[in-house]
Structures are given as C-alpha cells and as structure tokens.
C-alpha cells in the first residue's frame, strides 16, 4: 500500500490510526461498543467540507420535490403507464421507489433482521469474515476505500457476491445464510422486471438490457450504521454515485438516505414494504446520458443502528470480455456518443482507485469522449 505524502508526520499519524482501526477487525460497531463519546479523528470531515455550505447532517431539506413512487401491481394492465413513470424518474432524479413488487414484506423484514443480527454477532465470530481481499466473495469490512478517502464513513458492511456464478451457501455466515439465499432469488427476479421496464423506457425491446448482461450478476451489501456520538462531524456514507447498472435498496424505518437534485439534498423517506431503485453509472453511460446516475449519501445519526440492504446489479468479479458503451440503437447524428467503450474491469478499477473522495466528480467523467 502506497500513501501519498507518507513522509509527513501528520499523514503518518493518520495512517497509524487507520491501520489500528482496520486491524481491530471490529469496525465502527466495535468503537461504539467500546463506549466512545468523541469521534476519532479519522472519521471527521475536513474543515473545507464542514464550511462549504453543504448541508450538515440533520438539517431540513427542501420539500417541494419528492422521490417518485411506482406501483408495479398494474404491470400486466397499464404497462405503458408504468414505462412512462419509470422513464420520467430515470431521466430526471435517477431514483424511484417501487411498491407491490412481489417480494413478501415478511421476507423484507427478515432480511433487515438478518443484517442486524450479523453485525451484532460477537467480535470473534464476525471478525473471521473481515478482509480486504478483492476476490473474496463474502467479506465483512468497514469502508472499502478506507486508505483512499479523506475521512472514514460511519458504516460497516457485509459484502456478498451472489452471481453470476452461484454462491455456495456455506460461505455465508449462519446468521444470515438462509435469508440471503432467498432474498437473492427474489430480488434477482425483480431486477429482471425493472430492466425490462427500463429497456422499454429507452424505446428498446424489453429484453435489450438483459441481453447485455445487465441482470446477469448481482451482489448484496448489508450496511450497518451504529448510533454516532457526533453525527454533525461525519457521514454515514459520503456523497457518491453507484458503479453498477442498477441498485435496489431496502432500508429500515430510521431514514437518512438523501439524493442530490436541482433542489439540493432531498430525503428518500422510508416507505414500509418499498424498495428504492436508482440508476447506476454504467446505465447512464449505456443510455448516453438519457438516464441519470445521481449522487446520494447517508447521514450519520444519534439514533441507531440504521440497517439497509443494497443489491448491486453488476458482474463485479466475473471475467467478461464484453465492452460497454452507449447503446448503438440510441445513437444518431443528433445524438452522438458521449462516452468511450470500457470494460467492466477497467471501470470498477478506476472507481475503486478513486474511492468516494472526489466530491462532485463522477467516475463517468474519466470515460467521456472529448467534445
């Protein structure tokens, strides 16, 4: 690991703190369990962020704009109306919530419970899964970009690569094994439905995005945000966009998820039984900027723990030679390509090397064609 400016005493001290936190394998939950009342320095946002006018966690956000809610119960009836709603959401805010999506509420509740139970396991049990090994299919970690970011986020994550190669259930912790396998099956089916609607929203055949392997693989991330002693000084998750095709998020009742829009930061309110859907960077690239992959963040909070379960539709570790660029059927003389073609491997490698540290600078900008 190479850290820029490693000869600087302040940077060396920060590196020691990061390594001590990392090597504890206890995550943010371990800090809370130790009884801290002050935020460790590695979690504190830099002064320029705290004074830049970016709303601090807990500040009210504008109410004149809301995240669209799309009811899928009429998918076999008013499908055209659903496509219009999905198109509008994908082209404007890049986020929407779906209800009556077919996944039983009981399973949603069990999935959130399993996420909480894993993160609240005894340290000696949970710590066995802690690793930064890239190729590991099941891993528990705090801050994937710990050594690249300006400050650490107040969040721990269990990361599970569920496809395209089937995951051996024995690799999953017993605390969430059965629920993860069932939720994975059902969220995969919902993803297929959403990719059909998104294909139609682009004016394409319903199977078009699936034919490009957008629905072929997915990963499930169990996020855990413990109560924070000084939430105004840090973030649950720094502002970022997602490096995938599509994200489906199940969140609990606590809230804290916000989306950046033309009206500033707006809340994505918890809606019982709903799943939050957002466009990923790769789908913005493929749609040639027709769909929007927008920045979002999660506020830290005195209240907690907050639990969420994100499903990233991406091939991630899967070796594929397929190149991704603007879909040819969408291009014309009046709509030339905005991006160059890229492999998933190169896109993910660039995103991971950048981490979440470049506020306001999307990884997509690296792949734009010079105009």
Automatic annotation (TrEMBL):
In terms of superkingdom, the source organism counts as Eukaryota
Q: Which residues form the Fe2OG dioxygenase domain?
A: 216-315
**Any matching Pfam family:** DIOX_N
InterPro entries, sorted: DIOX_N (IPR026992), IPNS-like_FE2OG_OXY (IPR044861), IPNS-like_sf (IPR027443), Oxoglu/Fe-dep_dioxygenase_dom (IPR005123)
- Keywords per UniProt: Iron, Metal-binding, Oxidoreductase
Gene3D superfamilies, alphabetized: B-lactam Antibiotic, Isopenicillin N Synthase, Chain
Q: Which GO terms describe its molecular function?
A: dioxygenase activity; metal ion binding
Q: Which cofactor does it need?
A: Fe cation
The UniProt entry's sequence similarity note says: Belongs to the iron/ascorbate-dependent oxidoreductase family.
Q: What is this protein called?
A: Fe2OG dioxygenase domain-containing protein
**Which species?**
Arachis hypogaea (Peanut)
């Amino acid at each position: 690991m190479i850290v820029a400016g490693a000869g600087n005493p302040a940077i060396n001290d920060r590196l020691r703190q990061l390594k001590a936190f990392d090597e504890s394998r206890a995550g943010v939950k371990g800090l809370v369990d130790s009884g801290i009342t002050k935020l460790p320095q590695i979690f504190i946002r830099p002064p320029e962020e705290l004074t830049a006018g970016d709303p601090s966690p807990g500040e009210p956000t504008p109410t004149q704009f809301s995240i669209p809610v799309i009811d899928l119960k009429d998918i076999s009836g008013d499908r055209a109306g659903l496509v219009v709603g999905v198109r509008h959401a994908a082209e404007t805010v890049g986020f929407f919530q779906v209800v009556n999506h077919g996944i039983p509420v009981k399973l949603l509740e069990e999935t959130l419970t399993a996420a909480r139970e894993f993160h609240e396991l005894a340290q000696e049990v949970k710590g066995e899964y802690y690793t930064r090994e890239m190729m590991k299919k099941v891993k528990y970690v705090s801050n994937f970009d710990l050594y690249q970011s300006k400050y650490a986020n107040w969040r721990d994550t269990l990361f599970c690569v569920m496809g395209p190669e089937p995951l051996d259930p024995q690799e999953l912790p017993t605390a969430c094994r059965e629920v993860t396998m069932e939720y994975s099956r059902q969220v995969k089916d919902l993803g297929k439905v959403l990719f059909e609607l998104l294909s139609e929203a682009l004016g394409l055949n319903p199977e078009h995005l699936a034919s490009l392997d957008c629905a072929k693989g997915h990963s499930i991330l169990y996020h855990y945000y413990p109560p924070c002693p000084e939430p105004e000084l840090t973030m649950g998750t720094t502002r970022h966009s997602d490096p995938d095709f599509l994200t489906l998020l199940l969140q609990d009742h606590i809230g804290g998820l916000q989306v950046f829009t033309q009206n500033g930061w707006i809340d994505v309110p918890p809606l019982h039984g709903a799943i939050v859907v957002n466009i990923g960077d790769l789908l913005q690239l493929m749609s040639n900027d027709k769909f929007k992959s927008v920045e979002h963040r999660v506020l830290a909070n005195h209240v907690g723990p907050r639990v969420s379960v994100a499903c990233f539709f991406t091939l991630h570790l899967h070796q594929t030679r397929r190149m991704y660029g603007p879909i040819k059927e969408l291009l014309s003389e009046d709509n030339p390509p905005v991006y160059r073609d890229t492999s998933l491997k190169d896109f993910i490698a660039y995103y991971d090397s950048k981490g979440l540290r470049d506020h306001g600078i999307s990884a997509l900008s690296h792949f734009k064609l010079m105009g």
